[in-house]
Specification:
heterodimer, A: mainly alpha, B: mainly beta, two-stranded antiparallel sheet, 1 helix
């Protein structure tokens, strides 16, 4: 993984944690989202594809549901391991 | 022709907010190279045909993205006429990214007005029922 990808994933986690706060308001996200937008341009094509498929990581409800279903997945994250790629459709059904 | 997708902040009337910042309908100062707008000079970023190619930090949650405030809008390419002085620049194969540029060279403020005149033609895109 590139340094930009490490930073990108770290900030997605920061975004997710901020959204857990009862006082969170959507405009609070703007600064981090702006940085994520700039970082995205520095990712490799493979990292960009992965980041695009993992928007669910930024949302506490979707992330928690995913981790509940796949408790070992977070520990096994590896961009070269196809078993860890992609989100199952259940997370997206929760959005609708 | 494929529609052009762009995630933007909504105004009170439901259409995109106009401005020159992120997630607004308009170009930022850094979006146009040089002193005037024109072909190859940059413009308004859009994703052509498939919103799943749009970068996650811009896409709304309902479209599989990270953004908490943007709404997905789409614009028919037919809106980009000679009369509008707008056209679509080259489309990047992998990302489906392109920019709406000035068709003929013009001052940046005139290009900004041409972009913002498309506001009535942007329609909200319905979210997918089962995600991307």
């Amino acid at each position: 993984m590139s340094g930009a990808h490490d930073k990108y994933l770290e900030l997605v986690g920061v975004l997710r944690d901020a959204r857990r706060s009862p006082s969170w308001a959507a405009p609070d996200d703007r600064e981090i989202l702006g940085v994520l937008e700039d970082l995205f341009d520095q990712l490799t094509p493979e990292e960009q594809d992965r980041a695009n498929g993992e928007g669910w990581r930024g949302w506490p409800d979707l992330y928690d549901a995913y981790m509940e279903e796949h408790p070992m997945r977070e520990r096994a994250l590896d961009i070269h391991d196809p078993r860890t790629l992609g989100a199952p459709p259940r997370e997206w059904r929760l959005v609708a | 022709m494929n529609p052009l997708f762009r995630a933007m902040l909504p105004a009170e009337d439901g259409a995109p907010q106009i401005g020159d910042g992120r997630n607004l309908l308009g170009v930022r100062p850094s979006d146009v190279k040089g002193a005037s707008a024109g072909p190859g000079q940059g413009g308004l970023s859009v994703t052509v045909g498939d919103y799943r190619r749009m970068m996650a930090p811009l896409r709304p949650k309902a479209f599989g993205g990270l953004h908490s405030e943007t709404v997905m809008y789409e614009l028919p390419q037919a809106t980009l006429t000679v009369a509008s002085n707008l056209h679509l620049g080259p489309v990047h194969d992998r990302t489906s990214h392109a920019v709406i540029e000035a068709r003929e060279p013009c001052p940046v403020p005139a290009f900004q007005l041409a972009i913002q005149a498309t506001r009535p033609h942007w329609a909200r895109t319905a979210p997918p029922t089962e995600g991307p």
